[in-house]
Amino acid sequence: MTQSLLSEQQTTESLVHLLGRVAQQDRHAFSELYQSTHRKLFGIVYRILKHQALAEEMLQEVYLKIWEKASTYNAGVASPITWMATIARNRAIDEVRKNQLPDSEIDVDFDLIADDSMAPDDSFSKSQDLLKLEACLAELESPRAEMIKAAYLDGFSRQELAERLNQPLGTIKTWLHRSIKLLQGCMNL
């Protein structure tokens, strides 16, 4: 097993363990979980909300929900970071729909946010994964790659994608499902 895969597996196991402790109301474990994941979840929330102050506030709500729902986490269904990212994404999308937020006038430079949890080897591995993801996205048909980006980076709902692409909702769901399967296959090569 390569070093990056081993490191990723160790990280996943660590997060599963932390979520188990959080489910038992362990505040120290919750603090460790926050330190390990807050930058990634902030990035997800910010990309959708496009307002730094609102994203920071929303991140608090996301972690409150993680605290409350930790006992419902099922490692057989999703990785811990995927489970938490889904909570963050859904909460941010709900906020956009509720308040019809305008675009932000101020942009956050994510490169200026230090990530002390990432060692240089991790950074290299992440950049390699990003390059691979970009290559896999390039292999998808253009409208499908754009649809994946709109759904998972910009927070568009399936209904919004259907309207944007002038396609039936069922078609969008099928395209998303098939595109994700293709991306997963490509990433695992």
From TrEMBL:
Source superkingdom: Bacteria
Residues in coiled coil: none
SUPFAM superfamilies cross-referenced by the UniProt entry: Sigma2 domain of RNA polymerase sigma factors, Sigma3 and sigma4 domains of RNA polymerase sigma factors
GO-annotated molecular function: DNA binding; sigma factor activity
Biological-process GO terms, alphabetical: DNA-templated transcription initiation
Keywords in alphabetical order: Sigma factor, Transcription, Transcription regulation
InterPro entries per the UniProt record, alphabetical: RNA_pol_sigma-70-like (IPR039425), RNA_pol_sigma-70_dom (IPR014284), RNA_pol_sigma70_r2 (IPR007627), RNA_pol_sigma70_r4_t2 (IPR013249), RNA_pol_sigma_r2 (IPR013325), RNA_pol_sigma_r3/r4-like (IPR013324), WH-like_DNA-bd_sf (IPR036388)
Domain RNA polymerase sigma-70 region: 33-100
Record Pfam families: Sigma70_r2, Sigma70_r4_2
Domain RNA polymerase sigma factor 70 region 4 type, chain residue ranges per copy: 131-183
Family: Belongs to the sigma-70 factor family. ECF subfamily.
Entry protein name: Sigma-70 family RNA polymerase sigma factor
Originating organism: Marinomonas profundi
Species lineage: Bacteria, Pseudomonadati, Pseudomonadota, Gammaproteobacteria, Oceanospirillales
